[in-house]
Amino acid sequence: MSTHPATDPTAVTARPITELGEFLRSRRDRVTPQHVGVQSVGRRRVPGLRREELARLAGVSVTYLTRLEQGQSQNASDAVIDALARALQLDADEHAHLIALAHPAAARRRRSNRPERAHAGASQLLHAMTVPALLLGRVNDILDWNRTAHLLLAGHLDARAPLTPADRPNNIRMLFLDPHTRDLYSEWEDEAALAVASLRYTAAQFPDDARLTALVGELSVKSPSFARLWAGHMVRLCTSGTKRFAHPVVGELTLGYEVLHLPDGDGQRILAFSAPAASAAAAALALLDSR
Predict the structure, then answer these.
(1) Structural domain contains residue 182
(2) DSSP state of 163
(3) Could you give the angle at which helices 51-58 and 62-69 cross, rounded to 10 degrees?
(4) Mean pLDDT, rounded, for 188-212
(5) Phi, psi at 261, each rounded to 5°
(6) Distance CA 87, CA 91 (A)
(7) If you count Cβ atoms within 10 Å of the first and of the last residue's Cβ in the chain, which end, N or C, has fewer?
(8) Are strands 133-136 and 251-261 parallel, antiparallel or unpaired?
């Protein structure tokens, strides 16, 4: 017969650190007392802020902060979250990530584990675009791509692969496990770090997505690089930037990219690449498209 933990004096009362707790601890480790004007007293056993120092800076009790980290408090106010973000000097993406972790049930409807379907309008748009463009799902599956995007990113794969869920390429799985994709990026380490930071941001937005959880588990086992980056708890919402490619057909080229998030909030987004007119990169894309 089992004994209720509340009445069993031998029961273990310590609770595991949650995803929120791990994130807060990783940010505490990043902030030194000197950066936030905290006087360091005695021998320090942590590289950054102690829990009690963060609690004092944010104006909350250590007990409350501990409960929050252990998932025992689901009602943290916006004021408390904002205070923690200020104390930890979080940027806008990290702040949004903290809010998502602190309120994991904030009207998130349960997601089906069935394969995603490409939004028809988004597919129509990317096939009308004259620049490389692909449609990504929330788990980074490639739901559709236009001809130039296929030739740019994965010419070694069947162009029809996104149409069949069982054969559908996954952008982040390819980045870590496909040698062709790894060789494609001239700055692979930077690309990998950004991809993992973006995936962690997405994971907090969809905490009940079993397929996303399975992807993280698979990559953590199969790729030491992914496991190392995932453990760093870096967070970033990708919206725009540049990527450098070492393409096997057209050689080196640098392209700008924009991420267009679809408005219904289910995680699908269009990733589109472009190059300045009359540039070497534009000429390379034109050559690629002419094949």
Answers:
(1) yes
(2) G
(3) 110
(4) 92
(5) -80, 130
(6) 11
(7) N
(8) unpaired
Residues 133-172 pLDDT 10s: 999 998 999 999 999 999 999 999 999 999 999 889 999 9
Of 67, 102, 137, which closes a domain? 102
Does residue 40 sit in the same domain as residue 132? no
Residue recorded with tokens 């988004």:
122
Q: How far is CA 70 from the centre of its chain?
A: 22
What pairs with residue 246 in β-bridges?
252
Residues of the domain holding 29: 19-102
Q: Does residue 12 sit within a domain? A: no
Q: Which residues contact 201 (CB under 8 A, 6 or more apart)?
A: 93, 96, 97, 235, 236, 237
pTM of structure: 0.81
One-letter amino acid at 169 equals P
Residues 111, 112, 116, CA angle at the centre, nearest 5°?
100
In a domain, 107, yes or no: no
**Confidence at residue 41, expressed as pLDDT on a 0 to 100 scale:** 57
| Integer Cα distance of 162 and 126 in angstroms | 14
Domain end residue (candidates: 75, 102, 129): 102
Residue 25 contacts residue 14 (beta carbons within 8 Å): no
CATH number at residue 197: 3.30.450.180
- 215 has pLDDT over 60: yes
Residue range 252-290, pLDDT digits in tens = 999 999 999 988 768 899 999 999 999 999 999 999 988
Count structural domains, the chain.
2
Q: Which helix (H) or strand (E) holds 261?
A: strand 251-261
Q: Hey, which residues does 274 pair with through a beta bridge?
A: 256
Q: How confident is the model at residue 6 (pLDDT cuts 50, 70, 90)?
A: very low
**pLDDT at residue 233 in the model:** 92
Which of these, 157, 162, 156, lies nearest to 142 by C-alpha position? 162
Share of the chain above pLDDT 90, in %: 50
Task: Say yes or no: 174 and 260 in one domain.
Answer: yes
155: closest CA among 79, 248, 83? Answer: 248
Q: What is the pLDDT of residue 280?
A: 95
